[in-house]
Amino acid sequence: MSQQVQGVIAPGKNEPVRVETIVIPDPGPGEAVVKVQACGVCHTDLHYKQGGINDDFPFLLGHEAAGVVESVGPDVTDVAPGDFVILNWRAVCGRCRSCLRGRPWYCFDTHNARQKMTLTDGTELSPALGIGAFAEKTLVAAGQCTKVDPAVAPSVAGLLGCGVMAGIGAAINTGEVGRGDTVAVIGCGGVGDAAIVGARLAGAARIIAVDIDDRKLQTAKTMGATHTVNSRATDPVEAIRELTGGFGADVVIEAVGRPETYQQAFYARDLAGTVVLVGVPTPEMKLELPLLDVFGRGGSLKSSWYGDCLPSRDFPMLIDLHQQGRIDLGAFVTETIGLGDVEKAFARMHEGDVLRSVVQL
Ligand SMILES: NC(=O)c1ccc[n+]([C@@H]2O[C@H](COP(=O)([O-])OP(=O)(O)OC[C@H]3O[C@@H](n4cnc5c(N)ncnc54)[C@H](O)[C@@H]3O)[C@@H](O)[C@H]2O)c1
Ligand SMILES: [Zn+2]
Ligand SMILES: [Zn+2]
After folding, report:
1. How far apart are CA 306 and CA 111, in angstroms?
2. 252 and 227, same domain (yes or no)
3. Domain shared by 94 and 175, yes or no
4. Is the keyword Oxidoreductase assigned to this protein (predicted)?
5. Which of 142, 163, 205, 258 keeps 20 to 30 A from 77, CA to CA?
6. Residue 315 falls inside a structural domain
7. How far is CA 57 from the centre of its chain?
8. pLDDT, tens digit, 9 for 90 and up, residues 22-39
9. How far is the CA of 152 from the centre of ligand 3 (A)?
10. Quick check: CB of 210 below 6 Å from ligand 1?
């Protein structure tokens, strides 16, 4: 048995996305079908459409979602129909070399649904990040469903499924920002602003937001930035040094994914400081740095996959903090849109008009 629903696919490199009928198989062992209620538009969806992730077209886009479990496969016990869940792209396996060493937040063998969703002619779809949630329903591994308090609106809760978790986690998990640290965040879209929220939560003394768009800097201030730098007008490395007693920041988070901004992050940190790369580069990008500077400046150069989060630990915790008013996840939602508006939302993202457009179903 299977069912047909509407979903947004990216048919080929740089081709406009379109709404198509997709076929969802009934959940098999270890799988769940989720009725999607909301799914945010993340820059990574645009990377997929542009062929920047891989060439496995057609993609079923969308991966930042919340919804209600509709049905589960025969052996699924952790979630049940009716549960309100955030979808995650780190369904921890418990058995890979990283999990066995007690580091499940890096899990190297995360679970996705085994069966394929298809177009009506049988063409197999590649779901973005193993999720594919710009669709009325989607098929995932049951471990990709993290139960949270249904009192939070799906449009808000879903943001933790990718960008907001990636940003907050880049600060609190990967960057290990601590009380009194100086932090700079380069690129203040949804992910960078979430890194600012995470840095504030962790007790950073000074948070410097860097972007090339003044509107983004304005928003970054409302998220907790104490200082802003427009790097189109001002050299960000110099500006960050000036704002940190001439030394550079303890932690610099790169949330753009480009060699030049990575280089800025590298030189804008203090000796023995930390650079966190959370922006996703494309395959042709290269970085050149004097090896002596890599050695001589010490510290650590880290990448942050999904904010090094553990969904079972971090999603409910951040939902709690949101409900207590200690973070405001709602501030990330610029607009809610329909399934047919994703292409327009990409254009608005490209123009810098939005932090998050969220598809509401
Ligand atoms: N590592 C992860 O797990 C993970 C998860 C989600 C998203 N991402 C990546 O994070 C990045 C940001 O995603 P987003 O959704 O916030 O995107 P976005 O498009 O909303 O934000 C990007 C921001 O960077 C700014 N920017 C662009 N060029 C700049 C430059 N040269 N200097 C300074 N600022 C510049 C833009 O003005 C914008 O504010 C993307 O590369 C995305 O793929 C990574
Ligand atoms: Zn694992
Ligand atoms: Zn994403």
Report:
1. 15
2. yes
3. no
4. yes
5. 163
6. no
7. 21
8. 999 999 999 999 999 999
9. 20
10. yes
